[in-house]
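In this section we walk through a basic example: taking a raw amino acid sequence and producing a predicted 3D structure, encoded as discrete structure tokens. The instruction is simple. Fold the sequence below.
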Amino acid sequence: MLRFLTAGESHGPALTVILEGVPAGLALSASDIDRDLARRQLGYGRGRRMAIEHDRVEILSGVRHGETIGSPLTLVIRNRDWVNWQYTMSIEADPRADLPGARRGPVTRPRPGHADLAGALKFQRDDMRDILERASARETAARVAAGAVARTLLTALGMTVVSHVTEIGGAAVADPMAYDFATVAALTDEDGVRCADAAIGAAMRAAVDAAREAGDTVGGTFEIIAHSVPVGLGSHTQWDRKLDGLLAQALMSIQAIKAVGIGRGPDVSHLPGSRVHDEILRAGDAPTGTLSALRRPTNRAGGLEGGITNSEDVRVSAWMKPISTLMSPLRSVNISTMEEEPATIERSDVCAVPAAAVVGEAMVCLVLANAVLEKFGGDSLGELSRASRAWQLTVQLRLGKDAD
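The resulting token sequence is shown next.
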């Protein structure tokens, strides 16, 4: 089983990840992880911190001579912005105390939509910085690092995970599922939004610009696509083993995500069954998934039926609310005086949907890698790979067709 824990605060010295359960023999380097860390920092509408942080990972344990060795991985990501916050975050005297803004005071005016108020009441903290530092989306850098390891494992088994942005600030593609895996995989981060429709992408950037001008923020939607996923991951036998439920929980745990959809998602509620369910046909020479004997003309189920992968691409969407720090702040109450005042302003983004999609990829990779390890087991990559191939052969023979 793949398990990971993260530690560290937004403006602390570092984020730390401990990842357990990675099989031995997986080729892994810091550059494999740094690639995804860099992607997380991109995206149209990001804030000033992205010009300061240039995330790089240090692998402290679990890898030797470029290969995992079966023991827990320890990953560290240094916060380059720590130097600007170390006195605010510590009890040490600030030698720059005579300079304006050298030490930030306590946060007592909660931001609507953020964990500030609920967290301060739950943990009985007078300074909400104790809450917001951990609740910050800076924590997702640790998730992306862990997800990059999971992605490397999935890649070794022939699977690929990609994402695309389908809506920002009301500018939306008509049908996200009209774009297949190959189209989405070919997208780059150059335009800042990673949208498959160039005209809609331009409208997305315009929506971000308008929000920035108004001191506001915008949210949006993204879709994750996992390609070449074998049939049989997950289970229908218990509620907590259904893979669609595990994917939904993983994506909902990302900061600001308010809804998750599998395949066609919410649209299925108002369509007849004939336009929702995916017919099962003999493949001939045109299989659509990892089963060479069968094909599906559509994939509205998003590659999951009954909580189990069905061999088609796994497609999961997430809806992100606008970020809760506004440069033109909403009304709030100062909990130290109980007087109405504008909410606190913290350094933030106007839009982080493209970055959230990268975090979404990481979470999907972690869930799928865990499902793979549960299904096939093995302490080494060789053992895992042999079990995976044997399973695919078993399924293909069951359908009366030789494995590819």
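Looking at the output, two observations stand out. The chain has one domain: 3-398. The longest helix spans residues 353-376. In the next section we compare this with other chains.
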